Amino acid sequence: MDRRRIGVLAGVGALALSALVGVSPAHAAVGCYGSGCNGKDPQALGCYADAYTGSQVTTDDGRLLQLRYSPACGAAWGRLLQSYVGDYVAVTSSTGLSYSAYVSSSKTWTAMVDDHGSLTARAYHATQCCYKDSWTGWY
C-alpha cells in the first residue's frame, strides 16, 4: 500500500473515531431525557452538570426561588436557596405535571419535569407563615 492510500485511510479512521467520541460530555453523562426525567432527581442523574437558571425570583420571606433547566436532560426543577428545613418548593410543567419537596438539611430541590421542545415549567414556593406565595416565570 502506498503512502497516500495509508494517509487517506488514517484520515478516514480518525474522522470516524472523532464522530464516535464527538458526543459532548454533558449529553453522555446524563441518565434521562425529556419525559424520561419526570419524577427523577437531577443530582442523581447528572442533569445538574449543565443546568442553568431559566427564571428566578426573590420571595417575600427572603428566599431565592429558581427554576433550573438542563439542556442535556431537557428537564427542569425547582430549587430554593437561602432556605430553612421545612420550606416548601414545587415545580409545575405546562402539561400540568407537578412535583414538590420539603427542604431537608441536604436537599433544596424538587424532582424534574419534562421541559424540552415547546413545553415550559415554573417553580413555586409556599411560605410557612405570614408572607405571600411566590412563582418564578414560565421557562
Order of helices and strands: HHEEEEEEEE
Percentage of residues in DSSP E strands: 25-35%
Main sheet: strand order: 1-2-3-6
Instruction: Summarize the amount of helix as a percent range.
Output: 10-25%
Tell me about the largest β-sheet: 4 strands, antiparallel
Distance between the termini: 58 Å
Mean of residue pLDDT values: 83
Instruction: Extract low-pLDDT stretches.
Output: 2-26
Number of helices: 2
Describe the model:
With 139 residues, this protein is of the alpha+beta class. It has one domain. The chain is 17% helix and 30% strand. It is built from two helices and eight strands, in the order ααββββββββ. A four-stranded antiparallel β-sheet has the order 1-2-3-6, with no helix packed on it. A four-stranded antiparallel β-sheet has the order 5-4-7-8, with no helix packed on it. The longest helix has 18 residues. It is globular. The N and C termini lie far apart (58 Å). 35% of the residues are buried. The N terminus is likely disordered. InterPro entries: DUF2690. This is DUF2690 domain-containing protein. Pfam families: DUF2690 (PF10901). Keywords: Signal.
